[in-house]
Structures are given as C-alpha cells and as structure tokens.
Specification:
Number of domains: 3
Keywords: DNA-binding, Transcription, Transcription regulation
Region (Disordered): 1-21
Strand content: 15-25%
Number of helices: 12
Pfam families: LacI, Peripla_BP_3
Domain HTH lacI-type: 1-53
Order of helices and strands: HHHHEHEHEHEEHEHEHEHEEHEE
Distance between the termini: 71 Å
CATH architecture of the largest domain: 3-Layer(aba) Sandwich
CATH topology of the largest domain: Rossmann fold
Largest sheet: 6 strands, parallel
CATH class of the largest domain: Alpha Beta
CATH superfamily of the largest domain: Response regulator
Helix content: 40-55%
GO molecular function: DNA binding
Strand order of the largest sheet: 2-1-3-4-5-11
Structural class: alpha/beta
Number of strands: 12
Length: 325
C-alpha cells in the first residue's frame, strides 16, 4: 500500500479509503490510485486483513453428494450470493452424512477461520446431526427439516408435490401415481406429503408409491412396473432424472406420453425441456435459496441472533408431457 501511495502521489490513508470504497474520495484521486494498483500488480493480503478486522470474509459450506442436480445447484446459488456480498467460499463435500462426519467438517471449517457456515442438509441424518452439534459460529441450514436451534432456508417441497398432483387432477385424471425419492431424504418426504394431501383433498385414492433413488435407472425400473398396470394414466415423479427413466421405459414398452399417460417431474433441470416429450415439471428457485441463506447468515454475523425459517415457493412449468384425459 505504501508503494501504491507513492506511485499515485497520495497518502497511505487515501489508498486505504479507495480499497474500502470510502465515499469521501474524489473521483480523480480514486482513478489515480486504481491505476497505480494496476501498474504495480497490487494484491490485497487477505490474511493480514483478517488479523486486523477479525473477519476472514470467508464462509464455509458443508454439502452432500454434489453430483446430484439439487445439491449442486444449491451450492452454486450459495456461492454466487456469497461472492455478490463480497465473501469467498470454502466447501466441504461429504460422501455420507453422520454425526462424526458432520463434526469433522464443521471443525475443519472453524479451523480455517470462516465467519459463518451454511450446511446443505437434505437428509434426516444431516438434520439430526445438526441438532446435536453446535459451534460458536453463525450457522444456517438449507433444507434441514426443523433443525432445532438453527435458522433454516428451504424450498416448500410439500407445495411442490401438491402443485404437480393438482395439475394432473385438473387435467381430468382420476388419480396420480408417484415415483418417490429415497426415504431418508427430506425433500422426498415433503413431495410425498404434498402428493398425498392433494389426493386426499379431492377424495381420491393414493396408490402405493414406487421407490426410486433419484437416478434415471431407478426411474426406468419404476416405469417398467407402471407400464404393466393397466389403469395408470398420470404419474408424478419426484425428480427429473427419474422422470427421464420413466419416459424411456414407456417408449420401449409402447406407452405413449401424454396420450396414454401424463408425466410430471420435479426440479426443472436444464435438459427437461428437451426430453421427448418436453417435461412438465416443478421448478425450484436455487438462486433465491442461495441469496436467502447468505442474507440470514450475514445478519447473524452482524449480531442478529433471531432464528428464522424462510420458505421459497416452487412453481409449475407446464410443457407437453401432461395432457387432458
């Protein structure tokens, strides 16, 4: 900074004001300082800054299975929101979530001096682990169930299941079958609850759900089972990847979509509009989840201790895979 000050012909304090976007710096002076910074290749020493301010400007993120669209998109949304707020992200991705693994991840991030932590907790085991573990750091859970003692930001999965099911019922289908996600995932349980509630509200029977594991392969197997049931006319699939498998199975077995069976997915992955036929699905706003997560966490870092639960609404994206009965 002393070299920059000498090059620009200003004081050390003026350079500091420019770097911290202080309003009381003339435009000409600011330009001269920035040009000096570029010329000298100046880079901030973030470690030194953290020692002075006691803030690292780094946030920790704990996530699980970022190969799946939902968790990966959630982490991306968090990273984008953090960068917009002037923070860096340090990510720990766990292959499986249990109390020991969660503790190790939280301790690792705390040792790095992060200012706060966002935990993407899509499973019951993660939610339970969070309820048992505490760090003296601001923390927010994404999804996370109830996550006692923590702020939570989540998509309304129950509402998403309800939207999908009511859309199919409104098209004249007598009932809606469901290919669900794994039983230990909070999102899967929420979508099942919304599906079942929508059927009960209309006085319709709820067929036994078929179990999937989020993969196209499990959707394919479920699709083969559904094709063998003669009265199936509508299927709500708990994610788009499994819906892709269902569509493939129907095509192979001569079941036409949507003429014979209507299909609705969940997530609105980028490829869903290019499925054959283009997939009607439920969109999750991962950008909003990321923004709200960072906003809540930064309020905690700034000293607001009030716990919050922010629920992001999903939306129905209507395409060609669902039609009137």
């Amino acid at each position: 900074m002393a070299d920059v000050a000498e090059e620009a012909g200003v004081s050390h304090q003026t350079v500091s004001r420019v770097l911290n976007d202080h309003p009381n710096v003339r435009g000409e002076t600011r330009t001269r300082v920035l040009e000096a910074i570029d010329k000298l290749g100046y880079r901030r020493n973030l470690v030194a800054r953290a020692l002075v301010t006691r803030h690292s400007r780094t946030l920790g993120v704990v996530s699980f299975d970022t190969t799946l669209y939902g968790p990966a998109s959630t982490v991306y949304g968090i990273e984008q929101a953090a960068r917009a707020a002037g923070y860096f992200i340090s990510i720990v991705s766990l292959k499986s979530i249990d109390r020991s693994g969660m503790r190790d991840a939280l301790d690792y991030l705390a040792d790095q001096g992060v200012d706060g932590i966002v935990v993407v907790a899509p499973q019951w085991t993660a939610s339970q682990a969070l309820s048992d573990l505490r760090l003296d750091l601001p923390m927010v859970a994404v999804e996370g169930g109830e996550a006692d003692g923590l702020s939570v930001v989540c998509v309304d999965q129950v509402e998403g299941g309800r939207l999908a099911t009511e859309h199919l019922l409104a098209l004249g289908h007598e009932t809606v079958w469901h290919v669900r996600g794994p039983s230990d995932w909070l999102e899967a349980e929420g979508r099942v609850s919304g599906w079942r509630a929508a059927l009960e509200r209309k006085g319709r029977d709820a067929p036994k759900p078929l179990l999937g594991d989020w993969s196209p392969r499990s959707g394919y197997e479920a699709g083969r089972s559904l094709a063998a049931i003669t009265d199936v006319t509508a299927v709500f699939v708990a994610n788009d990847q499994m819906a892709l498998g269902v569509l493939r199975a129907f095509t192979e077995l001569g079941v036409t979509v949507p003429e014979q069976v209507s299909v609705v997915g969940f997530d609105d992955i980028p490829e869903s509009e290019f499925f054959s036929p283009p997939l009607t699905t439920i969109r999750q706003d991962f950008g909003a989840v990321g923004r709200h997560s960072i906003e809540v966490l930064l309020r905690q870092i700034e000293g607001t201790d009030e716990l919050q639960r922010l629920v992001v609404p999903p939306s129905l994206i209507s395409r060609a895979s669902a039609a009137r009965r």
